[in-house]
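FIELD: query
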Amino acid sequence: MRVAALLTLVAGAAGAQHASFPRVSEPARSSIGFMLGAPTGLTFKRWLGGANAFDLNAGFALAPGVRFSADYLFGIAQLPSDSPAVGFDLYAGVGPLVGVFRGSCGIGRGERCDTGDIYAGGRVPFGIEAVFRRTPLAVGFEIAPGIVGSKDGPAGILDVALTARLLL
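FIELD: result
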């Protein structure tokens, strides 16, 4: 239910973009950093100039499975800020992912763990990112529902991560 509430909030903000929030407008530049959560690993983001960007992620998921993802991100709105030193960008995106099941998956060690099986699918990230104007840093929160398939059939996923990137 909390996920549905967050998605409703993001969708509402997207609809309100045209009413009161300005468009995201970031210069063309890159950033590199870490993501902490599910998955945990490295992240690279490239703003294309204006509202949109893409990111590439490599991380450990399904403890300690490995996963790679790439997302095209659409800037929805820039949220109001009392400080000119930071901008808050709201975004949504879509992209593919590929991974491998390795190691224990925790409680009950699910049937798919320790198999080395490859899985692939897609995800739809929603997030907010604070881009600091006077410091080369951006931090954010992202939630990304998705679906993956393996030899055992389809399964849903839910990525939730905090990000910190150094602006290059």
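FIELD: remark
Strands lie at 29-38, 40-47, 52-61, 65-79, 86-100, 118-123, 126-132, 137-150, 153-167.
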